[in-house]
Amino acid sequence: MSRIGIIGAGAWGMALASVAERAGHEVIVWARRPETAEEINSKHALWSRLHGISFGKTVRATAKPKDLEPCDAVLAVVPAQHLRQVLAQFASLDVPVILCAKGIEAGSGLLMNEVLTQALPACAPLILSGPSFALDVAHGLPTAVTLAGPDLRTAKEWAGALSLKTFRIYPSDDLRGVALGGAVKNVLAIACGIAAGKELGDSARAALTTRAFSELTRFGKALGGRPETLTGLSGLGDLLLTCSSRQSRNFSLGLALGQGKSLDQALSEAKGTVEGIATAKIVARLAHEQNIDMPISAAVHAVVDGGSNPEEEIARLLARPVNPEFHRG
């Protein structure tokens, strides 16, 4: 039995705590607020947001960062834009850290593993990503994800340590590809939500998702991700899930925008952090700097950052020149 730390007591953090416990590990969950840790430890109505999930004696919570120091590995399950600030509280860690947020740091343009390397240089970075909703994982429904590490041996070690029959983890050593796929799909899911909110139909949804995948692969390959990674669970797989389900916060926010709600209204109704909002701006900036054609992402950026409205951006997309679907050479 290993001791696994979880930084973050939200729905995804608690779902992964359940995975780690079922995989046979002792689990220590760090919660930002002491009262949250007390609630978890008291076993009272354990997180109604997880609909009754319960834990055994090998899961406990704490609000003290030092309590995670004896862990063999730590899962960082906090929003991408807050990762650096949270990690600063764990300066003494020197164990592998599995990053579970999907995004690009807005100020620096760094991927989550690059943020970790700056914040905690003694910790080996790994990234867990793929098509997975917290409730599905917490309830033991079949799920498959990717775990990327600095090398395949490390990735295989921790994939094996955390895998279950219903939570299959495929190891990879493509940190950039896994990180980029997880970040960009959040932006594209907002676009798919807008299309659903505007009731553009199933044909439009299929076309938009396909063209969104083209953007994801262009962006990922241009920034160093491997093509096979981008077509796998952490790329195409995650995109398909996030672009088609109201369980996705990004899709749901887009849905609200498509239905005519303001960004402030949509955000007020969101149940948790919508990672695609912050990521849209940095993806648009990087695409411009690298001369990567990203019309759907640019449209999302125009809506959430530039004050444009969905109708204008849909009209702009439909007015684009008709070119070959694939560029040769």
Radius of gyration: 20 Å
CATH topology of the largest domain: Rossmann fold
Give the count of structural domains: 2
What is the C-level CATH assignment of the largest domain?
Answer: Alpha Beta
* Envelope shape: globular
Which segments are poorly predicted (pLDDT under 50) over 5 or more consecutive residues? 47-51
Q: How is the largest sheet built, in terms of strand order?
A: 3-2-1-4-5-6-7-8
CATH architecture of the largest domain: 3-Layer(aba) Sandwich
Short description:
With 329 residues, this protein is an alpha/beta fold. The chain has helices at residues 11-22, 34-42, 83-87, 112-119, 134-138, 152-162, 175-197, 202-222, 227-230, 233-242, 249-258, 263-269, 275-290, 295-304, 310-318; strands at 3-7, 26-30, 59-62, 73-76, 97-99, 125-129, 143-148, 167-172. Helix 7 (175-197) packs antiparallel against helix 8 (202-222) and helix 7 (175-197) crosses helix 13.
Structure commentary:
This protein is an alpha/beta fold and 329 residues long. It has two domains: 3-173, Rossmann fold (3-Layer(aba) Sandwich); 176-318, N-(1-d-carboxylethyl)-l-norvaline Dehydrogenase, domain 2 (Orthogonal Bundle). Helix content is 49%, strand content 12%. The protein has 15 helices and eight strands. It has helices at residues 11-22, 34-42, 83-87, 112-119, 134-138, 152-162, 175-197, 202-222, 227-230, 233-242, 249-258, 263-269, 275-290, 295-304, 310-318; strands at 3-7, 26-30, 59-62, 73-76, 97-99, 125-129, 143-148, 167-172. An eight-stranded mixed sheet has the order 3-2-1-4-5-6-7-8, with helices on both faces. Helix 14 runs antiparallel to helix 15. It is globular and about 60 Å long. The model is unreliable at 47-51 (pLDDT under 50).
